[in-house]
């Protein structure tokens, strides 16, 4: 009977052994406790969710969760020649392989894809290696993601070294779409594996790095950390990543977005440029100034340019600086600004009626003018008003025969030879005719008087018609007529 006791206990032992097989192995110093490894999806103290340290760089608007969209204009990825090298050995179950493809697609979502931006290729490997598509195959995100979705696992084996060598020899070539060394486009490879390489990766990875390829290593679950470190570029804490399961690998896409993203200070508003911020790519920027301003020595603030002093203003006459850093053109007095706002044309001040000349305004060729006077006048010292110079010339003197100027403002009248000036000092009378009419012998006789009156009257009418007889002679004749009557 005592021998049967162990037999009765056997089913219980078998059950306990089955349970122990399902439990995880005892905690041992593993990849999570080793320096130079980034871990995602771990649990913190007291079961709190593990969190990676917040980035020390300036914040930006981008995808912080899988599937998120980058903030437009804030984070622009650097142009890359990017090759994914993914392990599809039998240890990667179909659902887990789908997670890897989602991880790749979400990284593609965070990139600026195009012939002039980032180009993507994918190398699939197990015991054999297959290039699914080259860098030059697709130039847009949609086509790339569709190609990734069509990839299927290969077979058993984990030939990581062979996969890296194939990427070097066949994917990172100019013929396959890689850009040459003169382009300064970084060459980047991301290798994803969950096992230990079955070939030597140390030497081939070193050769890849020596050719300028930057290697990132992502380990999942049972991945060998030492092998990941052998493959990755320095510094290791920026190039080696680890996740416990394929279920959280998708979250690494945001980490690679940060890695490949060039923050744009111009979009973030942290540039401190006074006028204009210009993005130079890869997180760099420089400040510029608005038109009419120049950048100060601090490379951030701006000062108004004295464009008039530069001599490039194009103003024909006068350049006037404005407060805004611009300028405008003006013209000298007597000119008006043309429609081109630079050249000037002479004004017709005489036509404007603003010249101030008392008599005559004369335009000059240089846009100015001067005053002149009518005949018989002289221009005064003010250059505008006129004074009489010779009243005889004016024709308003009233002299019947001759006007004689006595200076600038006076004159007197004279008569032609054989005439005398009358008392009005303007008209003239004939001398001989008057004497002959007065010297008559028969001044006492009525008939003689009547005849004389008729003769004198007739003669006076003739003189008046000729405008010769003076007023004095007419008065004398009438007096004599009354006397004889």
What topology does this entry show?
Blueprint: H1 4-22, E1 38-40, E2 75-77, E3 81-87, H2 94-109, E4 119-125, E5 129-133, H3 141-149, H4 160-171, E6 187-193, H5 202-210, E7 213-220, H6 225-231, H7 236-239, E8 240-243, H8 252-260, E9 261-263, H9 265-268, E10 276-281, E11 284-288, E12 293-295, E13 302-304, H10 307-310, E14 318-321, E15 327-330, E16 335-337, E17 344-346, H11 349-352, E18 360-363, E19 369-372, E20 377-379, E21 386-388, H12 391-394, E22 402-405, E23 411-414, E24 419-421, E25 428-430, H13 431-438, H14 446-466, H15 471-484
Parallel strand pairs: 1-8, 3-4, 3-6, 6-7, 7-8
Antiparallel strand pairs: 2-9, 4-5, 10-11, 12-13, 14-15, 16-17, 18-19, 20-21, 22-23, 24-25
Helix pairs in contact: 2-3, 2-8, 4-5, 14-15
Polypeptide structure, described:
This protein has 485 residues and is an alpha/beta fold. The chain has helices at 4-22, 94-109, 141-149, 160-171, 202-210, 225-231, 236-239, 252-260, 265-268, 307-310, 349-352, 391-394, 431-438, 446-466, 471-484, and strands spanning 38-40, 75-77, 81-87, 119-125, 129-133, 187-193, 213-220, 240-243, 261-263, 276-281, 284-288, 293-295, 302-304, 318-321, 327-330, 335-337, 344-346, 360-363, 369-372, 377-379, 386-388, 402-405, 411-414, 419-421, 428-430. The strands form ten sheets. The protein has a seven-stranded mixed β-sheet with strand order 1-8-7-6-3-4-5, sandwiched between helices. It has a two-stranded antiparallel ribbon with strand order 2-9. The model is unreliable at 1-35, 38-73 and 467-481 (pLDDT under 50).
